[in-house]
């Protein structure tokens, strides 16, 4: 799964950072202040780069890769929320709905990394996103994926500005390629050395 989901999420983050230039600049400023230009960012820098971490969390919330999660099966007859679910029934979790629930998220249709930053500028420890599922069946690769995406994205942000090349447009994020996991439609970006 990681062979497709990590590249898909990286593509979505690049799209969002290109679309929201102020977020790209704020991440770059944070990296410049904490890491500088003499070495690449590492996982040890993660705790000192709260805005970068918040941007990745927000991208995972905003652009849910697996909107219905992974299918599960009821192992016995049960009742949930007043609904009878017979043994053997396929059960899907709407991760997309959880990530866009107005009872949980202020302005859920808006891309706002700041929602994951507290008043002191620190990352909010309680992460209400569930891009990797819930409970005992959460994706086993969650830690690997989060770490990989963090190192990739901070390294790219440290070294490049992302922009749309002349004569090109970004794909509409509401029109993704659907499958077990979603991916953006093909697009081109221009990377310029910083």
From TrEMBL:
Residues 1-25 form the signal peptide. PROSITE patterns: CYTOCHROME_P450. It holds the Pfam family p450. One of its GO terms (cellular component) is cytoplasm. The keyword Heme applies. Keywords: Heme, Iron, Metal-binding, Monooxygenase, Oxidoreductase, Signal. The keyword Ribosomal protein does not apply. GO terms for biological process: organic acid metabolic process; xenobiotic metabolic process. Coiled coil: none annotated. GO terms for molecular function: heme binding; iron ion binding; oxidoreductase activity, acting on paired donors, with incorporation or reduction of molecular oxygen, reduced flavin or flavoprotein as one donor, and incorporation of one atom of oxygen; steroid hydroxylase activity. Heme binds at residue 139. Its cofactor is heme. Belongs to the cytochrome P450 family. This is Cytochrome P450. The lineage of its organism: Eukaryota, Metazoa, Ecdysozoa, Arthropoda, Hexapoda.
């Amino acid at each position: 799964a990681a062979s497709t989901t990590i590249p898909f999420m990286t593509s979505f983050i690049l799209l969002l950072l290109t679309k929201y230039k102020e977020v790209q600049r704020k991440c770059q400023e944070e990296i410049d202040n904490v890491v500088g230009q003499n070495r690449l960012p590492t996982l040890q820098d993660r705790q000192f780069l709260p805005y970068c971490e918040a941007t990745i969390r927000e991208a995972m919330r905003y652009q849910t890769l697996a909107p219905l999660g992974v299918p599960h099966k009821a192992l016995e007859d049960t009742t949930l929320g007043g609904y009878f679910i017979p043994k053997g029934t396929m059960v899907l979790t709407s991760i997309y709905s959880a990530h866009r629930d107005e009872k949980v998220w202020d302005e859920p249709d808006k891309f706002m990394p700041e929602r994951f930053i507290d008043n002191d500028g620190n990352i909010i420890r309680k992460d209400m996103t569930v891009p990797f599922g819930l409970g005992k069946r959460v994706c086993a690769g969650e830690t690997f994926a989060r770490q990989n995406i963090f190192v990739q994205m901070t390294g790219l942000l440290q070294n490049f500005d992302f922009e749309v090349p002349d004569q090109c447009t970004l794909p509409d994020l509401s029109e993704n390629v659907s499958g077990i996991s979603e991916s953006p439609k093909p697009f081109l970006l221009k990377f310029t050395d910083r």
